[in-house]
Amino acid sequence: MALASIPVRRALFAAAAAGFLALPLSAPAFARGPENISEVAERVIDAVVNISTTQKVAAPPTTGRRPRDGQGQGQGQQPPGAQPQPGSPFEEFFEEFFRRRGENTPNPREQRRASSLGSGFIIDAKEGLVATNNHVIADADEVTVVLTDGTKLKAEVVGRDQKTDIALLKVKSEKPLKDVKFGDSDGIRLGEWVIAIGNPFGLGGTVTQGIVSARNRDIKNGPYDNYIQTDASINRGNSGGPLFNLRGEVIGINTAIISPSGGSIGIGFSVPSKTAMAVIDQLRQFGETRRGWLGVKIQEVTDEIAESLGVKPPRGALIAGVDDKGPAKPAGIEPGDVLIRFDGREITSMRDLPRIVADTAVGKEVDVVLIRKGKELAKKVTLGRLEDGERAQPASLPKSGGADDDKSTVKKTLGLNLANLSDDLRKQHKIKESVKGVIVTEVEPGSAAAEKQLAVGNVIVEVAQEPVATAEDVTKRIDKLKGEGRRSALLLVANAEGELRFVALSLQ
């Protein structure tokens, strides 16, 4: 602390000498944030805990010399008192220093105990339930919850969910615990003040403040991404800690940061309380999650796809494939349908559907509204239980092969050479027997097809929602669409395994 105060005093002295301190700054110039942050922090901090885990791992081999029993410190051995706090910013520097010096380490076959630190918070004082991140306790042999007064409690894992990175722990305490309640994450506004409390770098309970920078962020971390983004300082060790509103309610679980250096740069992400509460309730009841399952593969409705399907304005989730054993099949949902409403909730984008379906009870019959060939249709579907989960249909890139060079409309317009799907081509590209359509034999570099990642070996199954069996069928469909003044052609494309996706190619 003394080292930090020296330059401060020097700066003040230099400013006084220059006469700058003669103009005192008003109190508001120093103010940042509302006045009641300290009151909220004092009220809730006892419910925020540190999470410590240990795991037995094999010691890594090194070239360092192991000292004989009874000897003093060998060259390069870490001296007493130089153990850095696990998770602290100094830990990696100590490890690197002694690794280079040839630090003595156990035999590679011996076991050592690795530890990690994180954060959590008590959600039920009577039952001793503690919420945290799954990655904080993943693969741990022992989990310890440390209260603000230093009390250590052994914890058991009630359940955990990898998809949302949430875990639920249970502890037993001889003295009363303090808990906090969840708030409404849907009600938060951009710019609203929030408080993060956690265990950064193993330092213990630390309070930081900031605002809600954004909502519904997709950081490609899982199928249900809808994070709250905040500039409240979140660092390594804050994972699993709570994000509070100014009423002292938990509106998020701090989970991830974007940082080139490993420290906070003001971009942190929290799982919204609405998502967390649904998961925690299921973990509490069943020890696992039980999500609804529709049995479809989906993809985004782009402007081109929306124009091709007559969806105005662009919205919803495009059904790219239907599982033969899933609930959607008997309900009459088909590839090419655009699902715009599910159980009374609007589907504004593809990302909405997996979350809404997952939050719906298994076995419930729900109403869905979809657009098929420009017309709205109503269906009823009884949800199953999620196994593999809803997922966006990936763009598959099969291996390239030979090409047939025909100078058709398709080649000139789309940049594709096509061929009828013969036994030889099926064998060459390892295409399953169940896949029917017209095979792509060449993709012109820089063409519309290349930009949309069509590849040699892909099979065109439909054009404008009409099945095609020959290359001539495709040509006729493209000519017809151009004659109707259509700006794009919607293709249903399969890879060798039969996985489907829709591709809209410009006809301009």
TrEMBL record:
<feature type="binding site">
    <location>
        <position position="135"/>
    </location>
    <ligand>
        <name>substrate</name>
    </ligand>
</feature>
<keyword id="KW-0732">Signal</keyword>
<dbReference type="GO" id="GO:0004252">
    <property type="term" value="F:serine-type endopeptidase activity"/>
</dbReference>
<dbReference type="Pfam" id="PF13180">
    <property type="entry name" value="PDZ_2"/>
</dbReference>
<keyword id="KW-0720">Serine protease</keyword>
<keyword id="KW-0677">Repeat</keyword>
<feature type="region of interest" description="Disordered">
    <location>
        <begin position="389"/>
        <end position="409"/>
    </location>
</feature>
<dbReference type="Pfam" id="PF13365">
    <property type="entry name" value="Trypsin_2"/>
</dbReference>
<feature type="active site" description="Charge relay system">
    <location>
        <position position="135"/>
    </location>
</feature>
<feature type="binding site">
    <location>
        <position position="165"/>
    </location>
    <ligand>
        <name>substrate</name>
    </ligand>
</feature>
<feature type="signal peptide">
    <location>
        <begin position="1"/>
        <end position="31"/>
    </location>
</feature>
<keyword id="KW-0574">Periplasm</keyword>
<feature type="domain" description="PDZ">
    <location>
        <begin position="394"/>
        <end position="496"/>
    </location>
</feature>
<dbReference type="InterPro" id="IPR001478">
    <property type="entry name" value="PDZ"/>
</dbReference>
<feature type="region of interest" description="Disordered">
    <location>
        <begin position="55"/>
        <end position="89"/>
    </location>
</feature>
<dbReference type="InterPro" id="IPR036034">
    <property type="entry name" value="PDZ_sf"/>
</dbReference>
<feature type="binding site">
    <location>
        <begin position="237"/>
        <end position="239"/>
    </location>
    <ligand>
        <name>substrate</name>
    </ligand>
</feature>
<keyword id="KW-0346">Stress response</keyword>
<dbReference type="InterPro" id="IPR009003">
    <property type="entry name" value="Peptidase_S1_PA"/>
</dbReference>
<feature type="active site" description="Charge relay system">
    <location>
        <position position="165"/>
    </location>
</feature>
<feature type="domain" description="PDZ">
    <location>
        <begin position="283"/>
        <end position="374"/>
    </location>
</feature>
<keyword id="KW-0378">Hydrolase</keyword>
<dbReference type="InterPro" id="IPR011782">
    <property type="entry name" value="Pept_S1C_Do"/>
</dbReference>
<protein>
    <recommendedName>
        <fullName>Probable periplasmic serine endoprotease DegP-like</fullName>
        <ecNumber>3.4.21.107</ecNumber>
    </recommendedName>
</protein>
<keyword id="KW-0645">Protease</keyword>
<feature type="active site" description="Charge relay system">
    <location>
        <position position="239"/>
    </location>
</feature>
<dbReference type="GO" id="GO:0042597">
    <property type="term" value="C:periplasmic space"/>
</dbReference>
<dbReference type="Pfam" id="PF00595">
    <property type="entry name" value="PDZ"/>
</dbReference>
<comment type="similarity">
    <text>Belongs to the peptidase S1C family.</text>
</comment>
<dbReference type="InterPro" id="IPR001940">
    <property type="entry name" value="Peptidase_S1C"/>
</dbReference>
<dbReference type="GO" id="GO:0006508">
    <property type="term" value="P:proteolysis"/>
</dbReference>
